[in-house]
Amino acid sequence: MDDVFAAHLRDLSHKADRANRFTFTDFLNLDEQNTLNALRRELTPFACFGGTNGCERVIARFGDTQELGYEAPFPIACVRISPLQQKFSDELTHRDILGALMSLGIERSCLGDIVLRDNVAWLFALERIAPYLCGNLSTVKHTTVSCEITGELPEGALFRTETVSLNVNSLRADGVVAAAYNLSRGNAEKLFAAQKVFVDGKLLMSGAAQLKEGNTVSVRGFGRFVYREVTGNSKKGRLFITIERYV
Questions:
Q1: What is the pLDDT of residues 121-131, one digit of tens each?
Q2: What CATH class has 161-246?
Q3: CA 172 from chain center: how many Å?
Q4: Which architecture does CATH list for 76-150?
Q5: Which of 19, 102, 127, 137 is deepest in the core (most CB within 10 A)?
Q6: CA-to-CA distance for 130 and 124, rounded, in angstroms?
Q7: Cα–Cα distances in Å, from 93 out to 4, 98, 113, 122?
């Protein structure tokens, strides 16, 4: 556990209690979310949100809405980044967008998820940084872009998933990860040993853990998926399950 970051979380929690108001973190990566969840019993009640359903990077808000008697929105702005001339633009990637943003001197903790749809990027960012971003980001790769803060997301789910059927021995996490990404059991076990697997924002140290319906599994270097359900059994006792894999 990062002691400095843990102390920061405790401080935000204490401020929420003392001042009787909500306090917020910046965007948290998976390691930071794991620290947050490990400290849950020490902290005042908190909620997490990344801008829309399905975001991996989230902000934590400390404070109990029932005790405080009001609701406070998360300080998140959605920025639409689009090529001025789509016909002549490069095919933009997540890395291209993030690199252009970092070149402006913006810290990663100020930025949430970046989602690309039809060569248009939807970025979740801290409200305080969004106007600067819109006023200064003009080029991504070799493509001239326009930026605008918007409250409207594209129609349908912003994050795209595909439903995948798998055949596994059990609901052990290592077996499901291996099947989800076409890995050997041994290579899947190495991912757990390297601390690269998270379930619902918590680091999973052992591949022997059993997955539960609705668990979101993030595997660094491979992606993430949601385990949905067991759909049947084979004659040899194996399980047929479905997952929703982010694409």
A1: 999 999 999 99
A2: alpha beta
A3: 23
A4: 2-Layer Sandwich (3.30)
A5: 137
A6: 9
A7: 33, 9, 13, 12
